[in-house]
Amino acid sequence: MSVQHDPVQRADFDQVMVPNYAPAGFIPVRGAGSRVWDQSGRELIDFTGGIAVNALGHCHPALVAALTEQANTLWHISNVFTNEPALRLAHKLVDATFAERAFFCNSGAEANEAAFKLARRVAFDRFGEDKYEIIAATNSFHGRTLFTVSVGGQPKYSDGFGPKIQGINHVPYNDIEALKAAVSARTCAVVLEPIQGEGGVLPADLAYLQAARELCDQHDALLIFDEVQTGMGRSGSLFAYQHYGVIPDILSSAKSLGGGFPIGAMLTTEALAKHLVVGTHGTTYGGNPLACAVAEAVIDVVNTPAVLDGVKAKRQRFKVALEQFGEQYGVFSQVRGLGLLIGAVLSDAWKGKAKAILDAAAAEGVMVLQAGPDVVRFAPSLVVEEVDIDEGLARFERALAKLTQA
């Protein structure tokens, strides 16, 4: 039996919602695989993946089955108790990574909040109150809470909310000398995205991550990798640190972890985890059975050679086409990223026009993203079918052809 709903339109957003978003003019109402349909019945190909969230596309049968089964079993019990899906998911994440302990929450910001709090607590317990400085990269993005937005290196997101969290320094990304100059005895953690997502889909140099690891070891600091956007198969490895072969002390995950259901995780070692004793940190919904059941299904599908190898092959299909478009239409100077996190960097003539390309693409029936005003970002489903890649890219090319002829 379907429930009858009151009719709503895009104009309702401007009447009832806080205006901190500027959503597209159409409302998607249904999704299947890598295609969505809007209120008018128009079909679009989705290369956004809900901003690198829908790792298995829309309504993947394994996720629908996991959610439905759990919805009929147990929804919420609180962390006064534990639950089977949370324990199963923790085992799978521990078995698949460097980690020995998992903490579950509801978002990437919460996973980073937990990571930063853990780093400061470890330093406080081991070395005293003067070791609390966190070093992050300019143009990084780590979430929207006051702590995480202060660690993120983008003043446009952190300014205007009163005094910022103290003890946070920002250095240029991929600059080893700047990092060396910044790390000191007061440093408790260095936090980096293996690929800067919001900052322009910019991958780290291997030598840079290796230098960060060495500097942290030398100065008794912890290395934190924010893998909220790069994790869960997005790079072609389960986590991007595995691609680089550089092991962090703490890792944050979210976005693709739940395949569209809100969940975040902080992963770390037993020695570090023991500093979060009972009562030091918590979350009401974190680790709830619904989220963990879905995330367990996600990892079961994603952490397989078929899917991870498929990510690398699909990336090549995107890269070849986008580089060809860049040459033919003069819009892109470079295609960068890792796996299915792809950034098409706009040429000088097109700088600042990423939003115009997004809008033109949507008009042709393909959804893409931007990473700042100068980069068009693609973060499709990890299992996007080749027919959808080809059709979506054909639509995207039509958009570029119209834009460049205008």
Sequence-ordered SSE layout with sheet pairings:
Blueprint: H1 11-16, E1 28-32, E2 35-38, E3 43-46, H2 49-52, H3 61-71, H4 84-96, E4 101-105, H5 108-127, E5 133-137, H6 146-151, H7 155-158, E6 168-171, H8 176-182, E7 187-192, E8 195-196, E9 202-203, H9 206-218, E10 222-226, H10 240-244, E11 250-253, E12 264-268, H11 270-273, H12 289-302, H13 305-329, E13 332-338, E14 341-346, H14 354-363, E15 366-367, E16 369-370, E17 375-378, H15 386-405
Helix pairs in contact: 3-12, 4-12, 13-15, 14-15
Characteristics:
single chain, 406 residues, alpha/beta, Aspartate Aminotransferase, domain 1, Aspartate Aminotransferase, domain 2, 2 domains, seven-stranded mixed sheet, four-stranded mixed sheet, 15 helices, 17 strands, 40% helix
Can you walk me through this structure?
The protein is an alpha/beta fold and 406 residues long. It has two domains: 11-59 and 305-405, Alpha-Beta Complex (Aspartate Aminotransferase, domain 1), CATH 3.90.1150; 74-302, Aspartate Aminotransferase, domain 2 (3-Layer(aba) Sandwich), CATH 3.40.640. 40% of the residues lie in helices and 18% in strands. It has 15 helices and 17 strands. The strands form four sheets. The protein has a seven-stranded mixed sheet, with helices on both faces. It has a four-stranded mixed sheet with strand order 1-2-3-15. Pfam families: Aminotran_3. Its cofactor is pyridoxal 5'-phosphate. Homodimer. GO terms for molecular function: identical protein binding; N2-acetyl-L-ornithine:2-oxoglutarate 5-aminotransferase activity; pyridoxal phosphate binding. Pathway: Amino-acid biosynthesis; L-arginine biosynthesis; N(2)-acetyl-L-ornithine from L-glutamate: step 4/4.
